[in-house]
Amino acid sequence: MDTKIITYSTILTQWLDEFVNRMNGGRSSEYELITDDKHHHYEVIRTGWRKDVFEYNIVFHFQIKPT
Question: Are 9 and 40 in contact (CB under 8 A)?
Answer without folding.
Answer: yes
